[in-house]
UniProtKB/TrEMBL annotation:
Name of the protein in question: LysR family transcriptional regulator
Keyword Hydrolase attached: no
Organism lineage: Bacteria, Bacillati, Actinomycetota, Actinomycetes, Kitasatosporales
Protein family according to the UniProt entry: Belongs to the LysR transcriptional regulatory family.
Family annotation (InterPro entries): LysR_HTH_N (IPR000847), LysR_subst-bd (IPR005119), WH-like_DNA-bd_sf (IPR036388), WH_DNA-bd_sf (IPR036390)
SUPFAM superfamilies named in the record: Periplasmic binding protein-like II, Winged helix' DNA-binding domain
Superkingdom: Bacteria
UniProt keyword terms in alphabetical order: DNA-binding, Transcription, Transcription regulation
Length: 307
């Protein structure tokens, strides 16, 4: 920034001299002493390299150059005022808007209740909700397009802070006529790993949880079908495409109505997971995000029943 940029307070004083016709009256307008006002004007002249005032025993008046500079000063002050008002408006809009990202399971089953509770305490708050998989929520936080996120993945990157807001379990589900629906012994990890499944897309918290659980058994086999939304996966599983692995919250209605059956898995297979709120480390949470987080922690996601 150039070192000869004028002080805005000095420009205001210069305009006041032009309007009052007197340096002392201009000083009185800003509740400063006449010597302080004179010193401020001399500093401005020095910085600009232009003589602005003619000082006489009868007072001070603007030089011809001072008149020109005063006109310019009015434009600078108007722009500065517009700058202050504009940033205040931006701040007001930001304070009245909350940008939330949530992975599909959390967005569908938990976030609506949290937002309804938030609306009761902050009725004028506008909440923008972006629904995607856990990986994209994390990207949104890193690119500052989200204030807070809710994810399902087992691993939280080190550049994010997190807190648990709920718990969930993945279930292996099949149609009632599938051979697995009638087996008495739990499906072992090795068999599940070797089976082509109906799965969420890579990057989703559901997929990452399953991949982590099956890593000791050689990882996930090539899927029968990959989809980036829960409803089509439920439909595919219910139509008999093959076994699917989905959140217990997502399939609770299908289980209750008999469209799908939950298949037990061996105890060593870790399909439990935590649902977490995340936000960038080193960045303060907006007040509205902190309020939403408090509501989420007071109304945690309950783990649905299931094997």
């Amino acid at each position: 920034m150039p070192s000869d940029l004028p002080d805005l307070h000095a420009l205001e004083l210069l305009v006041a001299v032009a309007e009052t016709g007197s340096l002392s009256q201009a000083a009185a307008r800003f509740a400063i002493s006449q010597p302080s006002a004179s010193a401020r004007m001399m500093t401005l002249e020095r910085r600009l390299g232009v003589k602005l005032l003619l000082r006489t025993t009868r007072g001070s008046r603007l030089t011809p150059a001072g008149l020109v500079v005063t006109d310019w000063a009015r434009g600078v002050l108007e722009s500065a005022a517009a700058f202050v008002e504009g940033t205040a408006a931006l701040r007001s809009r930001q304070e009245g808007r909350l940008r939330v990202g949530a992975s599909l399971t959390v967005a569908e089953h938990l976030v609506p209740g949290w937002l309804l509770a938030l609306r009761e305490s902050a009725p004028h708050l506008h909440v923008g909700l972006e629904v995607s998989n856990s990986r994209k929520v994390i990207e949104g936080l890193r690119h500052d397009t989200l204030d807070v996120g809710f994810v399902e993945g087992p691993c939280i990157p080190r550049d994010l802070r997190s807190t648990v807001v709920g718990r969930d379990r993945l279930l292996v589900v099949v149609t009632p006529d599938h051979p697995w629906a009638h087996r008495s012994d739990p499906v072992p990890g090795g068999e599940l790993a070797a089976t082509a499944l109906v799965l969420r897309e890579p990057g989703s918290g559901t997929r990452e949880t399953l991949e982590t659980a099956l890593e000791p058994y050689g990882g996930v086999a090539t899927p029968l079908l990959e989809l980036g939304a829960i409803a089509p996966l439920r439909s595919a599983a219910a139509s008999g495409v093959g076994p699917a692995v989905l959140s217990a919250m997502a399939v609770q209605d299908d289980l209750a109505e008999g469209r799908l059956v939950s298949v037990p898995t061996e105890a060593e297979l870790r399909l439990d997971r935590v649902l977490q709120a995340v936000w960038p480390r080193g960045r303060s949470l907006p007040a509205q995000a902190s309020q939403l987080l408090a509501l989420a922690c007071r109304r945690p996601g309950r783990r649905p029943s299931g094997s």
